[in-house]
Design goal:
The complex is a heterodimer of chains A (316) and B (438).
Chain A (H helix, E strand, L loop, with lengths): L1 H53 L2 E2 L9 E2 L3 H6 L7 H33 L6 H13 L2 H12 L5 H8 L14 H26 L3 H9 L4 H12 L1 H16 L3 H6 L11 H7 L7 H32 L1
Antiparallel strand pairs in A: 1-2
Helix pairs in contact in A: 1-13, 3-7, 3-10, 4-7, 7-10, 10-13, 12-13
Chain B lengths: L1 H26 L3 E7 L7 H15 L3 E7 L3 H14 L6 E5 L3 H6 L3 E2 L2 H5 L4 H6 L3 H4 L12 E6 L1 E6 H7 L7 H11 L5 E4 L8 H10 L17 H15 L13 H7 L3 E7 L3 H7 L4 E4 L20 E8 L4 H14 L2 H11 L14 H7 L2 H9 L11 H16 L8 H16 L4
Parallel strand pairs in B: 1-2, 1-3, 7-8
Antiparallel strand pairs in B: 3-10, 4-10, 5-10, 6-8, 6-9
Helix pairs in contact in B: 10-11, 18-19
Classes of the chains: A mainly alpha (316), B alpha/beta (438).
Chain lengths: 316, 438
């Protein structure tokens, strides 16, 4: 027994030391991430959980009244066309989807085109790059204010140009048929240069010899673009598509400066609509339900993009 | 020796303790008020308000006012509402829209100032010195006063007096004359009349048309809203046709911020706008600026017929229920100070709001300003025709419903022929919201 016990006892000390070291070592990474984790829990996870819970609640008439659990009723009301919020929500959700898809569908290819143009030796390269990137450097509210002047009905630059050619002026942000497109136009101008920078970095990381080899094999520009450039920029495109869709769903400042969602919600977007309703305490449940829907859409969109692009990567 | 030291040390500690208690004792009566205020006009408002706070502190050394600039009226309401939602209300007294009253009454977050007024020696004189139109939105259906007017305004009609004189056109006083004048003044480069209803808040000016046709959108009862009425429809049709049929202004109305610029730059001969823009318009116009009450509609031209129907606007002073009785009492002193004729005269002269106290117009600097620019007195004249601004329970939601409905018709998003249906749908939604309150 003693003979057996001795080696065990002997081995206990190093194991214990190892265990102590191992515990400290294991704790160390958690200590490193702890500050971030605390912030994520406090400012993301807890509010997110609270938002989901509050989306199933209805506030009472008095501020001191407890909230009433109403299940999914708030979500149902949002899709009820005769409800005071629901009658607006579906239109605004539709606007948001159109806005996001068109902004993304135009600005991302445009960013790639600009990046390809600027990735070859041309004169005044610095000026071209700066000109295209400059809009993204401007503060959003400042850029929107500039566009509010451009779009102004009586003294705006666009209508002044139209008038000088004897053409009919356009009420850019006041006409229900043009307002959403006016905001989209401003947004594309503002964001394209920013996405272009990512594509430019992506293009410059592709070795030139790949193209030289392809050219030797007789591949023309179109073939090189679709067979080499696009696939090699897949991860850049994934990143740009994800951030551009997030930006599109986060649009608020532009609306505040340009049209405040008017006229008749034809130029309104989801996050701005949520912001507009914050002042009415009785709508608290709806505000939270709309936020949950907004986050859910973004989540589905982001995951779909990852699946689509990663699957494409694997297929190759 | 040792004993002496102990005694000295004990005495020192006791004296120190007593001395340290003196500020605390002095602080016992000290009150600090968190005062939230928005402005809707340009100018150094924060410096002026801080100046008022300093003056007030000299009058009441134990009360310190902490002015917090809270942006726009909407931002101020959102800030207060966020505090109420969180159950941690910091604000003691605030300037908020007069029309917010019933939202705060409903959630019991403000206290009626009637309680304090009742304790005044000169209560009658204090209340009756306010222009009656400005008091209407501060009073509930039982006649209880909840808030006191501070920075108030009304919409008026601005006209290019030189132009009207050159064209031989008299200042229009009713809608028929208004339309005729606007048609005569419209050219390829200039609109005859701009009514800024293109933005997100068409309800304010629309109310004047609904009232001019005989039915205000709301009256004293905060559980009733009259949107789907023949008068309301007629007012909306007239307003819409100014752009679509009569072509005297832009289709869909003009934008709020662009309208004074259009007027001063000669792109519009007449405009509807707040009296709060008068100072800026006088500074920028290189012609004689005329100001008049909004022209009347079919409901009549007499004061009692209310055919003129300009709704009041602007902010009142509210005291919050979450404050301690001492803070509320101090807040009431601050409210009295801000609503005093002297401050009202100064605030009105600085920022173009209509001084809410009648006696304020007898005091400088407003008296001198009005003598120099008689247009300021026109706003006082127009006040006799002014009415309460829209107010009801669920006012924010109902305003949104009405604004979207109006905007859809005025902008042409929905054809004018379908306006009646739009009003009916909106009224159903409004009635549904108000059903709980009846």
């Amino acid at each position: 027994m003693d003979a057996q016990a001795q080696p065990i006892t002997a081995s206990v000390v190093p194991i214990s030391r190892r265990a102590t070291r191992s515990w400290a070592q294991r704790l160390f990474p958690y200590l490193l991430v702890a500050p971030t984790l605390v912030f994520v829990i406090l400012f993301t996870l807890l509010p997110a959980t609270r938002t989901v819970v509050d989306s199933t609640m209805e506030p009472g008439r008095r501020a001191s009244d407890p909230f009433t659990f109403v299940g999914l009723e708030n979500y149902g009301d949002l899709f009820n066309p005769s409800h005071h919020i629901g009658s607006r929500f579906t239109r605004i959700l539709g606007n948001t989807l159109i806005f996001s898809l068109v902004t993304l569908g135009v600005s991302v290819p445009l960013a790639l085109l600009f990046a390809m143009l600027l990735n070859r030796p041309i004169r005044f390269m610095g000026i071209w790059r700066f000109s295209l990137f400059y809009p993204s450097l401007l503060p959003l509210i400042g850029a929107a204010s500039i566009w509010a002047f451009l779009y102004s009905d009586s003294i705006g630059l666009f209508n002044t140009i139209l008038r000088s050619f004897g053409l009919q002026t356009i009420n850019w942000t006041g006409d229900p048929n043009t307002v959403l497109w006016s905001i989209i136009g401003m947004n594309i101008w503002k964001q394209t240069g920013y996405y272009m920078i990512f594509y430019l970095a992506g293009l410059q990381s592709i070795p030139r010899d790949i193209y030289e080899a392809a050219a030797l094999d007789g591949a023309n520009f179109r073939q090189q673009f679709f067979a080499l450039t696009l696939p090699l920029l897949r991860r850049t495109t994934l990143f740009v598509v994800v951030i551009s869709s997030i930006f599109a769903f986060q649009t608020v400042e532009q609306l505040q400066a340009l049209n405040q969602g008017n006229p008749a919600d034809r130029g309104n977007l989801l996050l701005y609509f949520i912001f507009q309703n914050i002042g009415e305490r009785r709508n608290w449940g709806y505000i939270n339900a709309m936020t949950v829907i907004l986050v859910a859409i973004l989540l589905v969109f982001t995951i779909s993009n990852f699946v689509f692009f990663e699957k494409g990567q694997e297929d190759e | 020796m040792k004993k002496t030291h102990v005694v000295s040390l004990t005495a020192f500690i006791l004296v120190s303790l007593l001395l340290s208690l003196v500020p605390a004792l002095a602080q016992d009566n000290a009150v600090t008020l968190d005062f939230y205020y928005p402005t809707a006009v340009d100018g150094p408002a924060s410096q002026v308000i801080q100046g008022y706070a300093d003056q007030f502190h000299q009058l009441y050394p134990n009360i310190t006012v902490n002015p917090v600039y809270t942006g726009s009226y909407t931002q101020t309401r959102d800030t207060v509402q966020t505090e109420v939602n969180a159950g941690d209300v910091v604000v003691d007294v605030a300037v908020m829209l007069a029309t917010d009253l019933f939202s705060f009454v409903e959630e019991e977050s403000v206290v009626p100032v009637q309680t304090f007024i009742d304790e005044m020696d000169d209560a009658e004189a204090y209340v009756s010195d306010f222009f009656p139109a400005f008091m209407e939105n501060g009073v509930d259906e039982n006649g209880v006063i909840w808030s006191i007017p501070f920075q108030r305004s009304i919409p008026v009609m601005y006209y290019n007096a030189d132009l009207l004189e050159a064209e031989g056109i008299a200042v229009p006083t009713n809608n028929e004359e208004l339309l005729a004048a606007a048609q005569a003044l419209t050219t390829a480069e200039r609109w005859g009349l701009e009514v800024p209803v293109a933005g997100g808040f068409p309800i304010w000016l629309y109310q004047s048309f609904a009232t001019a046709y005989g039915q205000p959108v709301s009256e004293a009862d905060p559980t009733e809203v009259y949107f789907n009425t023949p008068e309301s429809l007629a007012g909306l049709e007239f307003l819409t046709k100014l752009g679509t049929e009569y072509a005297v202004g832009p289709v869909g109305g003009s934008a709020w911020g662009d309208t004074p610029t259009d007027f001063t730059s000669g792109h519009a001969a007449m405009i509807y706008h707040t009296i709060g823009s008068l100072t800026s318009i006088l500074q920028n116009a290189d012609f004689t600026v005329g100001v008049s009450a909004l022209p009347s509609g079919p409901a009549g031209t007499g004061v009692n017929d209310s055919g003129y129907g300009a709704p009041t606007g602007g902010g009142n002073l509210y005291i919050f229920a979450s404050s301690t009785p001492e803070e509320q009492a101090a807040a009431w002193l601050w409210v009295q100070f801000l609503s005093s004729p002297e401050i009202q005269s100064d605030w009105g002269a600085n920022f173009g709001y209509i001084a809410a106290r009648q006696s304020a117009w007898e005091l400088d600097p407003l008296k001198s300003l009005a003598a120099e620019h008689p247009q300021y007195l026109q706003s006082v004249d127009a006040l006799q025709y002014a009415t309460r601004e829209f107010a009801a329970y669920r006012a924010i939601d109902i305003q949104n419903i009405i604004n979207v409905a109006l905007s859809s018709v005025i902008s042409g998003s929905v054809p004018l022929e379908e306006a009646a249906s739009v009003l009916a749908t909106a009224q159903d939604q409004i009635d549904s919201l108000l059903a709980d309150y009846k």
